[in-house]
Description:
236 residues; Thrombin, subunit H; six-stranded antiparallel barrel; six-stranded antiparallel beta barrel
Amino acid sequence: xxxTQSAYWAICCWLVLALLGYGLQPLVSSSRGDxxxxxxxxxxxxxxxxxxxxxxxxxxxxxxxxxxxxASFAGSSFxxxxxxxTPLLDxxxxxxxxxxxxxxxxxxxxxxxxxxxxGVVGKIAAVGQGWSRVQxxxxxxxxIPFIDDxxxxxxxxxxxxxxYGQPRLRIDPIQIKDALVLRTHGGGGAFPEGLILGIxxxxxxxxxxxxxxxxxxxxxxxxxxxxSPILNASHR
Length: 236
């Protein structure tokens, strides 16, 4: 008798579990469907954000190209090679660097000038396949000639602080004063004359201790242009 009761009890339990499973299946399926829809929505959102970011980068790049192509000083003597620059944590503590998403396959070479929307960014310091390292303008080893608004020349050097440089040498009798805008000299072949280099933020004596404020965007991800001298380009 006990075996018969146990059998009936087992059958009843099985029926109850089967009914419960059948009744809960729509709920489980509904929850699973909601989860799948949520995943699809998140994927669509990520794809949309990616497209928006790419379109924004393309717009910034085209706007940058249009700006400098309309300036005869750049368009006449240099080819403008667009690239994306991202900050780089350089293992050498005294170096200030960034990375480009283009390299030797696009004709980039060491020593070429790099400019952004605010003017001088730096120079190409190393090149590989699909990448380049930029020596930023606040790197202590970054040195180029500059001119003031009157055309008087001097030598600019990066550092010693991030985002700043200093007038290392006066070639002409320049009067360094606060808010004086310094521009590229054009000598050396890396930059044309007249690009904004920086502005004197703190004039000091001796002049070499003065602080020159560089672009605020120097250490941010941005669209840039590499200046390839047309003479070099014709040889490739």
